[in-house]
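Progress against Task 2.4 (sequence-to-structure conversion) is shown through the following example record, which the project officer requested during the mid-term review.
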Amino acid sequence: MIRSINDDELVKTIVRIARSKDGQQYFCFLDNILHKKINFEQIDAAKDDTVLYFRLLVKTRMDYVARALDKDTAYEYEVLQKRLELKAKDNFVNVINGLHTERNADLRFASIQSLTAEELYYLAVSSDGSIYTSSFVKGVYPLMMKKINYHGDSLLLSLHFDKYRKMIKMCAGFNTLDNFLASFPAGNDPEQEDPAVVLMKAFVKNLERSDGLEDGVDVADSYASVAETLKPIADEMLRNIQLNYDRNKEVGNRKGMAIYNILNKLFLSADTTQKIDLTKELGIPPVYEVPFKSLANDSGRVNVQLFIYGDKDGIGVFPGLISMFSNANWKVDGSNPQWVTISSVKGKPVSLYMNRPLPEETNEDARAQEDLCKWLAANHIIPTVTINRGHSYNAPYTIDQMSPASKIVFMGSCGGYRMIHDILEKAPDAHIIGTKQIADAPVNNPFLKLIMEKLRNGNDIEWIPFWKELGKLVTDKIFEDYVPPHKNLGALFIKAYKRQMGE
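Structure tokens generated for the chain above:
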């Protein structure tokens, strides 16, 4: 019956798309097809060429954004965005990420050379969380700025400031925000604020008007990076957050008050002299530190569980993990055929329980993990620190078995940063460390050694100084892609917001 309708252009168009084997290629352009701005033949000419098709997606997105400013929302606006994100990652970002060991930049970034500044911008903002640091810093960002003649203001104007908060957040996280803001020319009128200052004010303004919480998450995630590298901008961000809270309070906007109150408390807690109790204020654990007493059980012991897998890599690194504790401060008990127990001899009582990486081909590593978890439960031993050592496909098994009481979770697997949501579902109070790309022993081992020593000495884990100390121990460049807990504010922002709003 639907297919027989001939007097409705929308229905006729959707029926034609549905009958095509390339329906998904067409559907994201539905509105412009209806408005005769593009036809099927033009899409056909581009759909088999990765650059031309992505170019068409970006052009359409820019058109839809311009129309939205005039309150004209296109059909399937979100479908277009999802298609753009898919093509950005599959056809470009995954390619340059996969070539991260290629030293020749011309070869590594060959696939993006023909893209315009606008297309590179959408490539970046569509791949937040998946693009590697080196892919952004050495490839996409400098090429984008070169193609816009190093005028970030011109780029944002041409895009009608679409997703500018995402770009600022990414620049902050990749330490290019100072460079990006410096590309804005100073104002000619001394009585007017510089465009870069105006942009950063807009960055934190009117978050209550945004659909969903993505913009608020971007602001939250940006602060720690900005506070470490651009203190004056961080101070200005904090002042503007407080001004926006007052503005929302005056008009009684509940959503706005919740957003800005949370951001204010999160940002203030970065300064330990402020003594902000986030658990009391927002119902979430402290962001910038994990007190030793919160990790210790009633007898004062801290229990750590390490999950390792029986593949070639796991078997290879296991002896090094054992030798790390072969000194006068620790005792290694290898009497159990399925796991090893490492306990402190000096300092505070700390125990590390680590399954042996028995052969995965016969599932012996899985049985060792399962039996260790059962033994810990039977002996009322509750780990508050979880360490994952394995490939990305192993990570779900660690999350499924880990202790819900975990306060610190280290995901030593590739792409562990993208498991934050799943980890918080299992361990709501966890401080999470993960990487956006490759995870390897040159970072994973120093982290384990440092945190175990901090615990043995009874230290609170203060993330900002801890991360700086860890950075001095690590020489491998992959450390740049590891994200510490105090830069994962977005997840805690969402949790706090839902609690305040009763969701």
